[in-house]
Amino acid sequence: MTLAAFDPGPEAGFLLGVLAWCATAAGVFGILTVGILMSLQLRHGVPGEKAEHLRGLTIVMIACVIAASAGPLVQALGSLTL
What we know:
The protein is an all-alpha fold. The chain has helices at about 10-40, 50-75. α1 (about 10-40) runs antiparallel to α2 (about 50-75). It is elongated.
């Protein structure tokens, strides 16, 4: 008994493209949101002020890296045959 190779077809490529654009838009929105919060919550001399903003920016950047690496990872895996 042999298993047929998994072929997702052209719809999967379209879906990955749409998800990549959505992830990019979400990343840009996240960076803009962190920047807006930084400007609204400007407090001089408060200990730990920059750590809060850096934490938010780090989370957004890690999410962007994960989303950006999903497409190439799927392409590197190939046809997913068993």
